[in-house]
């Protein structure tokens, strides 16, 4: 017996419907605060229909359009949940209406307020530019990305490594899809 379209779905039902592993849905809950399944005793998740629609939009942007998680977060922040829900449905008219409304509300930026380019959204566009200091160029042998004696990476270097890790994980995901 099929459920009503308005019925809540378990994580296994959502994962099966969207062809996603359950751990990916749990991970996305940590990255997208807009996904808020209801949790019952024992931590069992129940997704509302609007949660499932939002996840469809997120999945489409990440897997089909090649956006990074950071890029989808920016889309959600700038355009709202309804935008991604419309994208997930393939509702081009709604997407265009939301984009036009946003353009009408947008105030032109002065050259000083233009984005610096460090918030790119497509996979393969590094958000942090590597510098000579990170690779230890132009420094003594005992100096490098890790400060001597401290055993810790600087904040900039941690950001570079984190970005490289995300890029590698995305490459792995794409390669796994091809296989």
Provide a short characterization of the protein structure.
Keywords: DNA-binding. The chain is mainly alpha-helical.
Biggest sheet statistics:
3 strands, antiparallel
- What is the CATH level 1 assignment of the largest domain? Mainly Alpha
- Enumerate the spans where pLDDT stays under 50 for 5 or more consecutive residues: 118-122, 130-144
Count up the domains: 2
- CATH architecture term of the largest domain: Orthogonal Bundle
Q: What is the spatial order of strands in the main beta sheet?
A: 1-3-2
Portion in strands: under 5%
Protein name: MerR family transcriptional regulator
GO molecular function: DNA binding; DNA-binding transcription factor activity
Keywords: DNA-binding
Region (Disordered): 134-153
Provide structural commentary.
With 179 residues, the chain is mainly α. It is built from seven helices and three strands; from the N terminus they run βααββααααα. It has helices spanning 11-18, 22-31, 49-64, 69-79, 81-89, 92-105, 155-178, and strands spanning 9-10, 38-39, 45-47. It starts with 8 loop residues before the first strand and ends with a helix. Mean pLDDT is 75; it is low at 118-122 and 130-144. Residues 10-78 form the HTH merR-type domain. Keywords: DNA-binding. This is MerR family transcriptional regulator.
